[in-house]
Design brief:
The protein is mainly alpha-helical and 117 residues long. Helix content is 56%, strand content 10%. The chain contains five helices and two strands, in the order αααββαα. A two-stranded antiparallel ribbon has the order 1-2. Helix 1 packs across helix 2 (26-37) and helix 1 packs across helix 3. The chain starts with 7 loop residues before the first helix and ends with a helix. The mean pLDDT is 90.
Amino acid sequence: MKKFQLGEFEEIVMLTVAILYDNAYGVSIKKEIESRLGRNVSVGALQSALRRLEDKDYLAYHDKDATQERAGRPKRYYKITSTGKEAMQYTKETRNSLWDAIPSISLDVKFAQLFDA
């Protein structure tokens, strides 16, 4: 089984596509990330991440809703592929395993303050 690699922003995009489900197109993905995480997302960065995720076969898209206000261009709606779902599960399990391995004292705020002085 191949190892799945998701960068931080790619993971955020994948999670957001999952949240939006049937409404995951460029503008809605951008707005959702910005509202949930309170961070600005450039259109270029989002489009690059979406292309990378397509190239990895983690996302697929279909076009619909061509409108006059979009000059006849359709919206591109994204879905997570089965490979993408495996990548997300692998990433989640990896992160959980690392979090579970941290000794509680490592994240103890009072203990950390002893070294900040």
